[in-house]
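task queued by scheduler; priority normal; single chain, no ligands, no partner chains; default sampling; output format set to structure tokens
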Amino acid sequence: MLPAVTSDFAQVVRDVIDPAVEECERNPPKLGANGQIEFDPAYHRAGHAVWASGIVGAGPVEQASLFHLLAQAGEGGHACPVVCTAGLVRALRTNASDELRERFLPPLLETDYDRAQRGAQFLTERHGGSDVGANRVEAVPDGGVWRLHGEKWFCSVADADQFVVTARPRGAPAGTRGIGCFLVPREGGGFWIRRLKDKLGTRALATGEIEFDGAVAYPLGPLEHGFRTAVNVLNTSRWLNAVGSSGLMRRAQRVAAEFAQEREAFGRVILDFPLVRENLAVMKAETDAALASTTELTELVERIDRGEASDEDVAWHRLLVNANKFVTSIAATKVVRRAIETLGGNGTIEDFSPLPRLYRDAIVFESWEGTHNVLCAQVLRDLERMDAVELAAERAGASEELADRLRRSVADPSSGALYFRRQLDELVRALQVKVLRRTEPHSAELIERRHLVPGWSPEADPGYPDLVDQLVA
């Protein structure tokens, strides 16, 4: 059962946030002549409700529960600020000096929207994309602070009050070894927003291109650990990105299921048609699976935050946070697409259901915090560096055949670069099946057959129609 505070928030999402999101989605933010970002009033109505929930300062399990509900309204311009602020909170707690923590942490934990400060993370540059080691923004020492100069190309939460920014201290070596991680307060100035991005999805969120010209910056931890600090911030985002993807999927699944029970065609409700039932069964299983692997990850985050994690827990978290984001974000887009198919032409109408909005957001979720190939390459490197194939296979409940393929990819990274992405998908699927067997056995069965049984064919499986019926029921 959800905590009472989370159950209360479900009603807030339904009655306050979801209607506000519909409004501000139609009226995206604009860059005013004074350089300030202007939002539709509905954006702030949603913001008051989101921040009042205490989501930013909550523990990992409660935070994930609240965020899963929030994401069911779509991005709405506040999910990303919540995620970025949560990442900055974790960085301040674990990496910052006492002085920096005392100054910048309290306003991030404020639950009054009008007084609260929000965080952002600006890593991406025009020429490097996901290659943070190619960053060219320069950090120059100036007395007791640093000054940043250069451009960041994809800056979500461009209206934030505190920015996490990667930059290369003057004279530092090339690559990720020379990257520093800095906190830049908005109140210090020294930057300007060139323009806001016109994006496919997350349209209520202000994403811009920002030029730094002497902005005051404070190191988040030792300069030589800058890339590590930035990765830890990203890992919070990757974890919550998967939580958000599972929320999008749950909303889409429910919209499709309710429509199928009411819509009549050719003299009967469309839920009675076998292909509709199959579509709903796949949506149900995939949604349960995304939540299962993300719950496993959330429990790891909880143990790490409490200081109760073993070395193996930490290593498994390092692998799973990237792998799970990769698998769940792709699954979310496919599930929302299946929901649109269920509704037919109605599924494409903006004021008929939230599905068009959820579909756009899901595609953006796929690219946030690292593209699929970047995440897969990172996991392959980590498996080799940490000698962690056996750990990953054991934790995920992978077959010996899959473990052998993982070993070959690690032993020959040039071959693994081509084949590992498929193997990583199977590894996460194995974990989902393992977890689902305890809670949703029918979903476990369908995920296993669809993703893990070589050569499986529904036509050759006499139990398939009954499995579909059980999932739909």
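post-processing summary
- The longest strand covers residues 207-219.
- The domain at 4-109 is CATH 1.10.540.10 (Butyryl-Coa Dehydrogenase, subunit A; domain 1).
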